[in-house]
Amino acid sequence: MNQADTLQRFLFDGVPVRGALVRLDGAWQQVVSRHNYPAAVRHVLGQMIAASSLLAANLKFDGTLIMQLHGKGALRLAVAECTNERTVRATARFDAAITDAPLAELLGEGGTFVVTLEPKEGEPWQGIVALEGDSIAQMLENYMQRSEQLDTRLILACNDDTAAGLLLQRLPDGHGDVEGWPHVVALADTLQQDELLALGADDILYRLYHQETVRVFDPEAVSFACNCSEERVGEMLKLLGGQEAADVVLEQGSIEIGCEYCGQRYVFDEDDVNRLFNFDVMAAVREARH
Description:
The chain is an alpha+beta fold. The protein has eleven helices and 14 strands.
């Protein structure tokens, strides 16, 4: 398999450490091609989409891992999602005047970082990531240590063409040298961002760990996909209510809603609204107005 758009999981035989490498080329380009994101936003989203792919690699259920950065500064919102089927998507909201700046400055005072696990069956679970550290990687490392008591090292990188990342986690139980974690991390910290972006998983693992015994699993394909649909948008309009939906159609001629992730646009006219609410809501609202 071409190592573009792949997730590569691996396990050390001599140290209780697991890891994963992700490289997103086409999938990342699908994200950035749909919006005119400034460089500062691309930098954040690229790291988040790589991180979400890496953390979702260890999900034990069918569902989605969602990362959300909420800010009160120039960066209002950044979201990255990865499903257990290895599909990703991302979006952002920001001020038009946003420029390159440290993450804390982009978010402003009172920013929040939320990780949500959303299973297809059962209740979702949310965790709040403290904005401690200068990067998304450091914030998530601190979060994994505090919430899961799991030592983690994340190295993330992106440019206009590629988003990539390396994840290492010390297993609570395992065979081998339990004191080998610092050695594995020290080798990982020699990896340069341009190497992470340019090299495939096999080359990176050889470059870092050719003197270690590493069990490499089959690479898994990652792709861009959006789960928006006319049905989902219709359900959202039902929550809005028949009168409100009809009012918009009477005033604007139709309701047009665009997906923030993929850019797909959905248009609902009078017939669509009547069908959605299963009665002639348009006629009822017209009559009520007169």
